[in-house]
């Protein structure tokens, strides 16, 4: 029975792969062109879901599945993340033991900057995420780092996202440091590579498989994937970060999942956020 | 026959592998249709539908043999982990193989070690396949 179910999954995904194209560019440092990738992805979705407005992709699966959208609109009337935003604000404004606070660590006192993450940090030669810098701020000021994934880190992140609502993502890949483009390329590659015992890529579910039933679930389009994080997921019954979701989805291919904030995940976030350029930050979000 | 191996063998038929070289296609098709220990002909030569690991597990069930295969499986899994393609269940299977050895259940240990090594080997293949083909799924 187990075998049959797995095979059925494999074939469902195989059936959905008819809408792929053979790429002749974009697979190495010479040919990769993030802006061309972004436009190609938008065009892909334009033809796939002609009735969905570009701006609506910030709403994940609800941008393409009318049935679940109704329930979600109801859910958003009393947003389940409200408490977390309040808690996050409180945490954000509580001084550390040394008298400093989060506002001292971030540009503009940490207000309205969510959409600038992740970004390429030339000095450190790596992609930096918001959660990473929240914890670095703590450690620098003599506090213990929060656990990644959920709880206070997600709450602080939620408050910071809340203050950034409607700001437009405009992730940069600086041309003066080829390592930035390499990080983007690594993220892109991660997204499209099949892995795990089920031999599935992120793209199998979130590109070809967008809004196609896979077991009991409808995967969302990858366009707009990152805009609303952190997210209150009914299934979790709590708020969680993007990398918590990445770990869960990575495991869904039956891979041994990476840990939140692993370099691979940060590169993946860099790629996915670049793909969401032009969309607004709308975190925190609510999902099933 | 070890159930885990059957599952893994069946899974190897998933879309990625269908595009691989034709000996693999012939092997997988024969394996799927006739199970293990079936003889088939490919380009004029005869082959059997045994996975490498099944042959390795088909030895006398002794402690030394079980330990040797487990060591090989662990090494393979370390190799695939380094490539970032470790499968989810493999470490647990390796632990169970060690437990079986500790209990003197060498046949069971051999089968588990074979299964883990198969997972790792498939993960390595997946990695190489992805390196060469990942971009084919990117919309242009």
From TrEMBL, chain B:
Keyword annotations from UniProtKB, A to Z: Coiled coil, Signal
Stretch forming the signal peptide: 1-20
Coiled-coil region list: 52-83
Keyword Coiled coil: yes
Protein name, UniProt field: SoxXA-binding protein SoxK
């Amino acid at each position: 029975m187990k075998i049959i179910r797995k095979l059925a999954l494999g074939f469902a995904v195989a059936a959905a792969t008819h809408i792929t194209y053979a790429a002749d560019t974009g697979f190495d440092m010479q040919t990769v062109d993030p802006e061309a990738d972004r436009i190609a992805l938008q065009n892909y979705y334009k033809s796939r879901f002609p009735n969905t407005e570009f701006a609506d992709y910030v709403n994940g699966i609800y941008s393409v599945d009318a049935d679940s959208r109704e329930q979600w609109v109801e859910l958003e009337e009393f947003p389940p993340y409200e408490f977390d935003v309040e808690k996050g604000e409180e945490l954000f404004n509580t001084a550390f033991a040394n008298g400093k606070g989060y506002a001292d660590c971030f540009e503009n006192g940490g207000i309205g900057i969510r959409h600038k993450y992740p970004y390429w940090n030339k000095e450190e030669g790596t992609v930096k995420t918001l959660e990473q810098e929240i914890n670095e701020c703590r450690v620098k000021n003599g506090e213990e780092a929060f656990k990644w994934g959920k709880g206070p880190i997600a709450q602080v992140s939620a408050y910071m996202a809340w203050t950034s609502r409607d700001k437009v993502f405009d992730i940069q890949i600086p041309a003066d440091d080829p390592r930035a483009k390499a990080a983007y390329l690594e993220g892109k590659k991660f997204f499209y590579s099949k892995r795990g015992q089920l031999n599935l890529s992120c793209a199998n579910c979130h590109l070809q498989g967008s809004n196609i039933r896979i077991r009991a679930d409808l995967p969302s389009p990858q366009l707009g994937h990152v805009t609303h994080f952190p997210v209150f997921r009914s299934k979790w019954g709590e708020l969680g970060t993007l990398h918590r979701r990445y770990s869960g989805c990575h495991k869904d291919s039956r891979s041994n999942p990476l840990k939140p904030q692993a370099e691979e995940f940060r590169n993946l976030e860099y790629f996915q956020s670049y793909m969401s350029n032009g969309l607004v930050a709308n975190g925190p979000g609510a999902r099933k | 026959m070890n159930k885990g191996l059957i599952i893994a063998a069946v899974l190897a038929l998933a879309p990625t592998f269908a595009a691989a070289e034709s000996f693999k296609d012939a092997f997988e098709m024969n394996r799927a249709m006739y199970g293990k220990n079936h003889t088939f002909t490919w380009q004029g030569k005869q082959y059997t539908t045994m996975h490498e690991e099944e042959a390795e597990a088909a030895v006398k069930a002794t402690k030394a043999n079980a330990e040797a295969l487990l060591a090989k499986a662990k090494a393979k899994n370390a190799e695939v982990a380094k490539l970032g393609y470790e499968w989810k269940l493999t470490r647990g299977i390796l632990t169970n193989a060690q437990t079986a050895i500790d209990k003197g259940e060498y046949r069971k240990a051999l089968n588990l070690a074979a299964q883990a090594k198969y997972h790792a080997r498939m993960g390595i293949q997946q990695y190489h396949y992805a390196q060469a083909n990942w971009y084919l799924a990117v919309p242009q």
